[in-house]
Amino acid sequence: MALVCLSQCVGKVESHNQEGAKSMIPAVVAGVDTVYLVRSMEQICAGARHPATNPAHRQRVNALIRDSLKRYGYDVQLQQVKDSIYVGENIIARKDGHVAPKNKLIVSAHYDTTEDSPGADDDASGVAGLLEIARLLADIPLEHSVDLVFFDLKESHFAGSRTYVTRHSEEDENIIGVINLDMIGYMATARNSQRVPESIGIALPAVKRKVETHGNVGDFVVCVANHRSKDLKDSFVESMEKYVSHRKVIALLTPGNSELLGELRYGDHAAFWDHDIAAIFVGDGADSRNPNYHSERDQLGTIHFGFMKDIVQGALACTLKMCKPLDAATATKSTHTGTNQ
Fold it and tell me: What is the C-alpha separation between 18 and 58, in angstroms, rounded?
């Protein structure tokens, strides 16, 4: 009887601790700071980051990412990437979970650009957002692991993400989802500033109606998922509704791996779809909204930092929801009692 009472008391304490850990999420999400986003963006989009046209700045950004992650206390791993022409380097910051470390969520962005574009939106915005997520996650113990991955050579046939997911197949780990941040900084408030590609309008008429009902105004967040990724998509949308309720999200659920809607595969999420791993693309709609796409005009002055901050907050909230924050006492107990799996 005494043992039963003790077990019940311990259970209540652990439940209380878990609820206390969950209650930290609003404060962590509120910590996303535009000052950090601007500071990172100023350095990242000072030039193109293409291996042939601007290798020096590309290497400076590589070093900026690595140094920032190390300053936040992460163990940084480098993964060589090759395509038929170029050699690159994925940058991976690992945060081990305290309860089930072999279950991991991936949050990603790509730091390369096309040949002549400074790539402010594509994808310095995603990189700066991911660095801010890294800063805020650094001291929070989690049940599951997180890989913060800065992909290289996305603009070279997605070589970085394809390399990463191929190497993953050799590891004894379970990827519980991928949140890919690609072009999260462009917003427009004029009517008809958002276009729906004809093929998407035909295949996904409900999406077209939502955009038209919204006046074709390009001020909403785009979330792309396939059916395997539906739960992850729902988790992101719910996180936005709870913590960034003023920002509208329009989600697209594409059939299969979007073989018939190729424009919805244009991102590092597609490499994971092809390996039956849940992944979502989160962004501003790319060239369906941003007229500066893949051009020299994709510069810092075109970025809407309020919109960008909203997406970072939503992605951070979803990450915490998926990976389950722990209070310090529970994290220590999990480590010392060998509950890691």
Answer: 42
Tokens of 57: 């700045």
Q: CA angle 92-77-98, nearest 5°?
A: 70
Token digits of residue 328: 């310090």
Closest C-alpha to 276, from 168, 183, 130: 168
* Measured distance CA(112)–CA(294) in Å, rounded: 12
Q: What is the pLDDT of residues 212-244, one digit of tens each?
A: 999 999 999 999 999 999 999 999 999 999 999
pLDDT band, residue 169 (cuts 50/70/90):
confident
37-335: CATH topology: Aminopeptidase (3.40.630)
User: Residue 46: how many CB atoms within 10 A of its CB?
Assistant: 16
Task: Provide the CB-side half-sphere exposure for 339 (13 A, CA).
Answer: 14
Dist CA 319 CA 313 (whole Å): 10
Q: In what order do the strands lie in the sheet with 100-110?
A: 75-82, 87-95, 144-151, 100-110, 174-181, 279-283, 221-226, 249-254
**What residue segments make up the domains of the chain, in order of their start?**
37-335
